Structure formats: C-alpha cells, structure tokens
User: Which sequence fits this backbone?
C-alpha cells in the first residue's frame, strides 16, 4: 500500500508542477512575475488531507497496523526553526524540495542526480552530528547523575 | 503572470493529499519525504514501508517521464550551486524534522503548531533567498 501511496504522490507532484524548478522559483518569487499555482497544490492537498486525517485519527488504529505513528510534539524549538530556514534557503536557490528531486531522477539528468547526492550527504551529516550531540549530552547526563548519587 | 496553472496544480494537490491520506489510513504513517528518506539512511526497523514508498515515488517519476516528460523540468542553476542547495535541503530537513510534505501538508493538515511554524519559516526563507538571488544579485532571470 505504501508503494501505491508513493506512486500517487509522485504523479501529484508532476501534475501539480512541483517537479519544474522554474515553476517553484516562480512561486517563491513574489516580487517578480509571481506564479501562484503552487499554492493550489498545497491547497488541494490540504483540502483532502485535513478531512481524511481528522476522520482517520478518530479511529483507534489504521487498517494495516496496530497503531498510528504520528508526531505528538507541540513545542517550537531552535532546531525546528533553524532547520526550516536552511531548508527554505536551499529550496529557494535550486527549486527542489526532497520529493520532487527524487521523482525527477527519472529524467536521468546529471543535474538532479548531483542534487539528490548532495541532499543525501546533507541528511547524513546532520544525523552524524545529531548522534555526536546526543552522545555528549548523554555523557553530561550520566556525569550529573553520578554527581547527584555521590551527594 | 507567467504560466499560471490553477487547475492542474489543484488536481496535483488533490492527488498528493490522497496519497498522504492513503498512507495514514492504511499504514498509520506520515507521508513526509525527508522523514522517510532520513529513516532509510539511518537504517534499523521500519525499513520496508519506507523503501516501498520511495520505490513508488521513483516509479511514479518513470511514469511521468514516459507519459508527460515536460512535467519534469530542467535544473535552473549550475552544478556547484546545486551541491550547495542539496546540502542545505538535506541538512535543514533533518534538523527541522520535515519538509514541504511532512510539515507543509501532513503537519499543517493536522494543525500541528510545530509544522505551522516550520512551514511559514521555510516559505519565508525560500521567498527571501529568491528575492536576493533574482533581484539583488540578478542571476537566473
């Protein structure tokens, strides 16, 4: 079922115009010859998803699994904002966000292959960095616990 | 206004919303591309549905390329710039826990405060960068 979802998602990106970097830039270029089309992509997606998600999440579980795996955090923290700033900058520079970049691989163009490779590397670097941070704060926590226990 | 396509874009959006709905109703998962790809990179459990989703995404690309190749547009910047942008998109979506799909559609669709802030932030950053590149530096116009 998730294969079908992925396939449908890709077709939606293509039909909607998200796999044309020039169109993405045209949407973000509010001060230029603005093309608001991509707001309709988000609007159309939200129209369906907002209703279905509300109905679905009122049920105890999805059809094919024991429970829902939905983020529950509500706090706005620094990584969320900084990460979104960096992502938005990259999106505005090249006109690719992750989904359309992966879908565009089918064109076989070197340019999009290079973009996806850099994107995966960027993801990997953040994950390494997060693991290092996690270990450090883990060590600090352990040290603090030891100190508390000693007192 | 250049190439304004409200109807095909609305249809594309409905398809995306349907796909994300399917993943939620059937598998109980969020259709966030950066989260799914990041999860595959990280490894561990939860590989199979993610791999299938990405396989579907790539297969959908092949269908588009075969049926309507013009829907997959060419890059608008050179390779060095694509590398920088790719690194920013990869790093940023992992640090910020999501992208246009996970935050912009699934999170906003559930009125998650984190996703509302993230979506406003990356839209604003994208518009500011586009303004700087196109109107201050004057490239790509």
Assistant:
């Amino acid at each position: 079922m998730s294969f079908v979802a992925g396939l449908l998602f890709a077709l939606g990106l293509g039909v909607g115009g998200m796999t044309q970097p020039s169109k993405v830039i045209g949407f973000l270029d509010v001060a230029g010859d603005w093309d608001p089309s991509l707001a309709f992509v988000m609007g159309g997606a939200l129209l369906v998803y907002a209703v279905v998600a509300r109905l679905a999440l009122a049920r105890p579980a999805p059809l094919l699994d024991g429970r829902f795996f939905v983020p529950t955090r509500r706090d706005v923290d620094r990584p969320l904002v900084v990460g979104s700033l960096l992502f938005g900058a990259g999106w505005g520079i090249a006109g690719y966000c992750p989904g359309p970049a992966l879908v565009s691989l089918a064109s076989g163009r070197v340019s999009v292959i290079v973009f996806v490779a850099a994107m995966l590397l960027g993801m990997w670097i953040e994950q390494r960095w997060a693991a290092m941070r996690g270990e450090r704060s883990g060590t600090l926590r352990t040290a603090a616990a030891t100190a508390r226990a000693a007192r | 206004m250049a190439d304004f396509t409200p109807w095909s874009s609305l249809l594309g959006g409905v398809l995306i919303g349907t796909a994300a709905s399917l993943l939620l109703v059937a598998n109980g998962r969020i259709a966030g591309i950066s989260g799914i790809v990041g999860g595959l990179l990280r490894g561990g459990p939860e590989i199979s549905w993610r791999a299938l989703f990405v396989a579907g995404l790539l297969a959908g690309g092949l269908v588009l390329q075969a049926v309507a190749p013009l829907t997959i547009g060419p890059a608008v910047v050179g390779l060095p710039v694509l590398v920088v942008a790719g690194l920013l998109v990869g790093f940023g979506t992992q640090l910020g826990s999501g992208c246009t799909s996970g935050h912009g559609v699934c999170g906003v669709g559930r009125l998650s405060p984190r996703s509302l802030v993230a979506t406003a932030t990356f839209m604003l950053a994208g518009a500011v960068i586009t303004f700087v590149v196109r109107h201050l530096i004057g490239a790509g116009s």
Notes: Helices of chain B lie at 6-27, 33-42, 47-67, 79-95, 102-109, 113-137. Chain B has six helices and no strands.
